[in-house]
User: Which sequence fits this backbone?
């Protein structure tokens, strides 16, 4: 009987420790803001951003038929971390030798990172 009571107490203590959880468990990334300011002289027709760890761009972050006009800006809620950002323009709006500008930047929690898209120097 004494053995059974001792085993029951060990089982209860073990469950109690499991229920407390692991205090070293990482917290999910916090929110941050990506602010895109278009100073390129042409409308941004599509905008892509993705984690630096992902090898493809994924879908356009602008709505169908949405653009960021020259002189306009748009903000996006993202998580903290490293982000690649790319803006695409209409084919003839910028010089042929100027491809999409790609940004690779670390953004901290609660930070607003502003990316000003500018036309290339001529």
Assistant:
């Amino acid at each position: 009987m004494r053995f059974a009571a001792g085993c029951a107490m060990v089982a209860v203590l073990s469950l109690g420790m499991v229920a407390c959880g692991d205090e070293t468990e990482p917290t999910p990334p916090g929110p941050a803001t990506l602010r895109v300011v278009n100073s390129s002289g042409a409308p941004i027709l599509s905008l892509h951003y993705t984690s630096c760890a992902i090898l493809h761009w994924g879908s356009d972050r602008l709505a169908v038929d949405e653009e960021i006009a020259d002189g306009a800006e748009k903000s996006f809620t993202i998580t903290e971390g490293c982000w690649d950002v790319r803006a695409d323009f209409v084919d003839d709006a910028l010089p042929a030798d100027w491809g999409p500008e790609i940004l690779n930047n670390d953004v901290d929690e609660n930070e607003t990172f502003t990316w000003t898209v500018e036309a290339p120097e001529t």
About this structure: The CA atoms of residues 39 and 66 lie 17 Å apart. DSSP finds one helix and six strands in the chain.
